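Changelog excerpt

This revision adds worked examples to the README so contributors can see how folded entries look when concatenated. The first example is reproduced verbatim below.
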Amino acid sequence: MASFTGEKPVFISPVTIAELKYGAELADTPAVRQKRRVALNRLSRKPLLTIDAQTGEVFGELAAHVRRAGRHHRYRVQDLWLASQAVQYGFVLLTRNARDFADIPGLDLTVIP
């Protein structure tokens, strides 16, 4: 991750923790489950961003933008919460899936291959 962030601090969202835990619990094999749990444990040591009233305001604005653009935000709730936190704090969002975030205004995105 340091190759993408350099010396900048890295934070984690409770939304990311939930997604990683979900993926670990649904792993097909014990080996994959363990690998995912190790990754979750490592990332859980990062400072945690809060979700507060301002995050909710940003979320509402971004969800409305997505809806006005003709897409439905219901299927992208987690992505919108993550984007809302990144926009709120002025952080770069790291992702492996640029498509999930491509149409979100004001979001600074870095795609990890």
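The second example, added in the same revision:
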Amino acid sequence: MERRPRIGIVVTEPGRRRYFADRTVQRLSAWADLDWLIRPGTARQPGVPDDARSQAELARFAADLDALIVSYGSPRVDATVLAGAPRLRFIGDTHGDRSAARVDLAAAAAHGVVVSDTTNGSSDPVAEWALALTLIGLRNAGAHFRRLVAGELLWPDRDVLLRDPGYLNGELTGKTVGLIALGNVGRRLVELLAPFQVKLLAYDPGAPDVLADVLDLDLTSLERVLAGSDVVVCLVPLTRASRGLIGADQLALLRPGTVFVNVSRGAVVDTEALIARLEVGDLIGCLDVVEPEPLAVDSPLRQMPNVFLSPHIAGVTDAAEFRFFELMADEVARVLSGCRPRYRLTPRESNLDPPTGDNRLVR
């Protein structure tokens, strides 16, 4: 009789309740034996424990596993842990955010262990909110809302309406949309944009040429995306390489009437430069993220009529909470059955290297 795989899961107790749905646990238990290592901490425990006792506990736990799934509260899976786990074939991080903080990738590769990260469990709602912000921006809905709640009469005469950006540029259908990065969020957004028959431009120096054909878009430079789009959507995760990627020179390329959407990280954009560009009044900014967060009470962004703000909520939905583990359950089954992973972990900071076909700008 074939031996059932043994899968270990490391997480805090609040994290287990919040992210690890019983239905998915039962699905894994149908074909594998599950072991739990419950660690102290909160549902979103910050940091990675690095004390000797925690490392020893993880090493003992992993010794007889075929697969190891880590999450909040887990110590780092280092060379010592891997050396003591000869049967280990797979490591998955449900909440690693592509940073490889919990896994020594070089040591895993040396031991022939596949490593995956399913942080993309929140990609779908981020893509949906990016689409929503695009529509809000094109209709100038943020400005209309501000005036409505202030008790203003929006259209004192018809000529005012006819000059409004929401009237002049309000339809998404047929527009040119520029995407800065083509990771999981970007590819999902491409699907959501399909009914609008938009022309798509994308900047992602690590994306293979074939992706342009698969997604029916044009891969191009950052400058052309910024200068040639009616809507620009920033989807870049924050790395040392992407910090300040969009500064004053880049923002100056945006043509009047452009809608600029950011659902990535605020620090990808130079905040002061963005404020200065928006103060000109010929752009509409729709921002789910800013730098710093929370946004200062006296920030000009709070008062600008051409700015719509949301409080970093794009990826935060109840449905997404359980999806991280659902995707990981599929991934561990895939790898242990002999298939290649879909969400292989490559750390974000590899983006410091010159762009190659394997060096993606995004997760």
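Reviewer comment on example two: The longest strand covers residues 6-12. The CA atoms of residues 195 and 333 lie 34 Å apart.
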